[in-house]
Amino acid sequence: MVAMGAVPDAATDFEALFQAYYQRLCRIFGAFSEALLRIVGLNHADARQFASQLAATPVWLFPIEPDEVVQMRQVNLRTGPGTLLQGFDEDGKIVRVTLLWSTPDRLYLISAGTSDEVVIAAANSIQ
Asked: pLDDT for 42-98, tens place per residue?
């Protein structure tokens, strides 16, 4: 029952529902990532640490083709940690750099055919 004069805010309700769903999805993804990392050989502590980073910045948002050769690592940004993905051509040359990071209210992704330094500088320039 809604009190007289109180009007439910559909946008706030949707945002709260979305945030709860997103956080639950990230927790599930983190647990799945930890199990997968253990299967491929990481020890328990490293798998848990890396999985928690993956849950904070979900790499499933990265545009990776099945036949792509990539390398992934964590980088430190002005706003906190980010996940950097480098895509390579058949000669081992970096052809694309993608960076994913989040803040409490936003999720960011930059992908460009440039250097790590340029992408990191661009991320650090976002207010």
From this structure: 788 888 877 777 666 655 556 566 677 778 888 999 998 888 888 888 898 988 898
Q: Which tokens in the block code for residue 63?
A: 């545009």
pLDDT at 125 over 90: yes
Q: In b/e form, how buried is each residue of 57-81, taking b as 16+ CB within 10 angstroms?
A: bbbeebeeeeeeeeeeeeeebebee
- Percent of residues, the chain, with pLDDT higher than 90: 17
Q: What is the DSSP string of 57-92?
A: S-GGGS---TT-EEEEEEEEETTEEEEEEEEE-TTS
Q: What is the DSSP string of the chain?
A: -PPTT----HHHHHHHHHHHHHHHHHHHHHHHHHHHHHHTT--HHHHHHHHHHHHHS-GGGS---TT-EEEEEEEEETTEEEEEEEEE-TTS-EEEEEEEEEETTEEEEEEESS-HHHHHHHHHH--
Instruction: Give the pLDDT confidence score for residue 49 in this predicted structure.
Output: 79
